[in-house]
Design brief:
This protein is of the alpha/beta class. Helix content is 35%, strand content 19%.
């Protein structure tokens, strides 16, 4: 069968083969609508631009790209923090322009030891639950089980989930706690030759909170830019991250 119109969401996650399967279902006079966020493609294959996707579809002419740049979900300071990872990812999309602001929406906490790191994370999570705010805790796999054994006291409809970073895409929560982001990247990408996939993962993790983002680590540099700490641990050449120039189009 061929179809008159096909609409696809989360297009950034389709492989070239899957795009060709879609293309085979389109008649010559058919149309197609594609939506997605190229910066949130966390698989092994990714597209730097929409033109690359349309090329795989065989529909790289007579198309219009509408870019949505206004963020109504994530506070301004969190967006500004996340945009540095968008630039490092090499994806050809404009940085989000925040609509809302919230006092103390981005918090960086430096701990003196791994024990203190867990203690602070647990305190933040419980305080958020007490305020009836749901929490997602992202941490290296090596300490996820330890956090999972903690008994939290939830209030009202607030919930808490401890998750692997690979499970977070598409989700959101009032509060997100990221523990040791550089270590997370080291565990996920131990032999990564480039910085683009880790950068996209940091972008995804950083844009899941709608009220508060807490980033916990044992060094200030790691919290300011986890990619630098990750590259140093991976013995990769450190390249300066260019400034972002967010524009509406």
């Amino acid at each position: 069968k061929s179809w008159g119109h096909i609409a696809i969401d989360e297009t950034q996650d389709l492989s070239p083969m899957e795009l060709r399967v879609v293309s085979n279902r389109l008649a010559d006079n058919s149309s197609i609508s594609l939506t997605g966020d190229l910066a949130q493609a966390t698989g092994t294959f990714f597209y730097r631009s929409w033109e690359g996707i349309l090329e795989e579809l065989g529909r790289n002419s007579n198309f219009t790209v509408r870019e949505l740049t206004r963020s109504y979900r994530v506070p301004s300071s969190v967006i500004e923090y996340a945009n540095q990872f968008l630039v490092a990812s090499g994806i050809q999309v404009s940085g989000a322009i925040p609509f809302m602001d919230d006092v103390d929406s981005l918090n960086k906490v430096v701990a003196k030891s791994s024990g203190e790191l867990l203690k602070v994370a647990i305190e933040i999570a419980q305080e958020s639950l007490n305020a009836e705010q749901s929490v997602i805790v992202l941490a290296p796999e090596s300490i996820l089980d330890e956090i999972g054994r903690v008994v939290f006291l939830a209030q009202g409809k607030a919930q808490i989930r401890t998750m692997k970073p690979s499970e977070i895409k598409g989700l959101e929560s009032d509060v997100v706690v990221i523990i040791s982001p550089a270590q997370i990247l080291e565990e996920m990408y131990p032999d990564q030759a480039d910085i683009e996939r880790p950068a996209r993962m940091m972008y995804v993790m950083s844009t899941r909170s709608t009220r508060r983002l807490h980033i916990l680590g044992m060094q200030t540099d790691e919290l300011d830019d986890p990619l630098i700490s990750y590259r140093m641990s991976s013995k990769q050449a450190i390249q300066p991250i260019p400034e972002i120039n967010a524009q509406t189009t």
